[in-house]
């Protein structure tokens, strides 16, 4: 029986015998499109041009110019063997011969002379198996892409929460994340001392976004003071590193590496290599490498960004100040990385944050897909999705604010634990736009206005900032909602939901 759906699959028959090709064509052409190759070189050439269209290769071994083993070697070299199954068809039946074929990735083996029923059944089974695996791979890829997108949006929201109180643009945290990743990659190429790999670099760069989370606890009159701090004010300001570390100690998932890196970065990113930093006066390699790298990135971005107390320095001036020791002492090897990555850093800091974020999401998605390539498809799906869920749970737990996610179909509102408590709602609410409790919290007019703003965004500009009055802890409070519309990958893109945060404004007065 051929496949039950309407799609006609394409089979490449590679055999130097015209008679054998003719027999196989007569068996299969009613249900499949057949392409023929007279030798191995021709088969490889066809695969180079049509690998995405070919669903199966029926491969003879003994052929002129390039034999079947040569074709299999090429398919392994270019990774075609992962997506295009091969059934070996040959009169050769020795054990060593067949084992070599299986070692090179052959899915099945059919000996000549052909049995029509056996050929048809094995062709159907193989094509359907790989078609199912391809569908699963697409499904996993889409889910990982969406999870990565949510995690990157969560990072953006958390950074906005910190920078919103600091009266800055929110770009600082995103710059730190990008520069941390660049420096770590350079460091990995220079030395194996720190046992850096792709996953570790990803974790540290994600954790770097929380480096200043302790500033949430600093009074705004000190946080945004334009002039020089008094000794007492500076002592309060410096306490943000310890506050951030204490917050990391208080979150769940203490066994997660991400929490470990976040703690190191929060507490020690103001330490200096000569021991003159704070809060603990660590020296040299006593400072974890995660904190050392973020320290360099933090100083560079502070120098090149405009602040209430200073103008922005140029890229060249910032490098000169760091290398000359005007901003404290740093590890010499990291300074080498800074110099060698100078052009990349300057280019990346100029890239639009949405473009950089989308590129990062795609890179991480691809990396996650290959990280578990030795597992079965089902196991790989579960492992990757659990890894993404763990990251998402961590980011929703580290900042004391209200986080929410709205899914358009099926219509559901999901809240962080704190959000559910302060809004007086369940953590998950179906059909929230028709739920009386949800409507009362924001009000009919504000809810309609916010919904309209989100649906009127476009994938290239999906962020909405909205000031409103919202019912928190049973009373109306002034709040700022920062959120991002989620769009599908379809053409045209479809609005599929929203992720965001509700930030209570200091003073809590209602918005009029």
Task: Walk me through what this model shows.
- It is a single chain.
- The chain is an alpha/beta fold.
- The protein has 20 helices and eleven strands.
- The protein has helices spanning 18-28, 40-50, 68-77, 95-103, 116-165, 171-190, 198-208, 220-223, 231-238, 240-250, 257-268, 289-304, 315-323, 332-340, 342-349, 353-371, 377-398, 417-423, 436-442, 444-455; strands at residues 10-14, 33-37, 54-59, 86-90, 108-111, 402-407, 412-415, 428-430, 463-472, 475-487, 495-504.
- The strands form two sheets. A six-stranded antiparallel sheet has the order 8-7-6-11-10-9, with helices on both faces. A five-stranded parallel sheet has the order 2-1-3-4-5, with helices on both faces.
- β1 (10-14), α1 and β2 form a beta-alpha-beta unit.
- The radius of gyration is 29 Å and the shape is globular.
């Amino acid at each position: 029986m051929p496949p039950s759906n309407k799609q006609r699959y394409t089979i490449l028959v590679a055999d130097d015998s015209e008679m054998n090709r003719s027999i196989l064509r007569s068996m299969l052409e009613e249900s499949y499109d057949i392409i023929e190759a007279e030798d191995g070189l021709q088969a490889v050439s066809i695969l180079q041009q049509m690998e995405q269209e070919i669903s199966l290769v029926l491969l003879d071994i003994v052929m002129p110019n390039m034999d079947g083993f040569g074709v299999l070697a090429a398919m392994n070299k270019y990774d075609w063997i992962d997506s295009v199954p091969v059934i070996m068809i040959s009169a050769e039946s020795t054990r060593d011969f067949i084992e070599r074929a299986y070692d090179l990735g052959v899915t099945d083996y059919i000996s000549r002379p052909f049995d029509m029923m056996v050929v048809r059944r094995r062709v159907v089974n193989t094509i359907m198996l790989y078609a199912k695996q391809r569908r699963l791979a697409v499904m996993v890829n889409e889910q990982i892409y969406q999870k990565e997108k949510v995690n990157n949006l969560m990072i953006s929201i958390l950074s906005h929460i910190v920078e919103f109180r600091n009266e800055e643009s929110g770009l600082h945290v995103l710059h730190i994340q990008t520069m941390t990743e660049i420096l770590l990659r350079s460091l990995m190429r220079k030395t194996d001392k720190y046992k850096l790999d792709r996953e570790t670099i990803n974790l540290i760069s994600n954790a770097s976004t929380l480096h200043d989370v302790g500033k949430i606890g600093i009074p705004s009159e000190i946080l945004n003071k334009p002039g020089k701090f008094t000794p007492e004010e500076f002592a309060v300001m410096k306490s943000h590193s310890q506050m951030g570390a204490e917050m990391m100690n208080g979150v769940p998932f203490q066994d997660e590496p991400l929490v470990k890196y976040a703690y190191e970065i929060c507490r020690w990113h103001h330490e200096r290599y000569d021991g003159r930093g704070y809060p603990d006066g660590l020296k040299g390699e006593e400072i974890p490498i995660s904190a050392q790298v973020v320290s360099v990135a933090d100083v560079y971005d502070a120098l090149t960004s405009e602040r209430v107390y200073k103008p922005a320095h140029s890229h060249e001036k910032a490098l000169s100040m760091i290398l000359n020791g005007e901003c404290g002492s740093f590890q010499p090897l990291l300074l080498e990385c800074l110099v060698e990555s100078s052009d990349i850093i300057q280019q990346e800091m100029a890239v639009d944050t949405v473009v950089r974020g989308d590129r990062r999401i795609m890179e991480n998605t691809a990396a996650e897909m290959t990280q578990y390539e030795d597992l079965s498809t089902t196991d790989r799906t579960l492992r990757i999705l659990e890894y993404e869920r763990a990251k998402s749970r961590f980011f929703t737990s580290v900042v004391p604010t209200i986080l929410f996610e709205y899914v358009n179909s099926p219509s559901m509102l999901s809240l962080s634990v704190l959000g559910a408590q302060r809004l007086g709602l369940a953590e998950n609410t179906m059909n929230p736009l028709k739920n009386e409790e949800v409507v009362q919290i924001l009000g009919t007019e504000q809810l309609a206005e916010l919904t309209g703003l989100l649906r009127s965004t476009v994938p290239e500009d999906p962020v909405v900032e909205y000031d409103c009055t919202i019912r928190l802890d049973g009373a109306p409070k002034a709040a700022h909602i920062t959120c991002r519309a989620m769009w599908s990958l379809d053409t045209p893109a479809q609005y599929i939901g929203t992720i965001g945060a509700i930030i209570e404004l200091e003073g809590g007065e209602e918005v009029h």
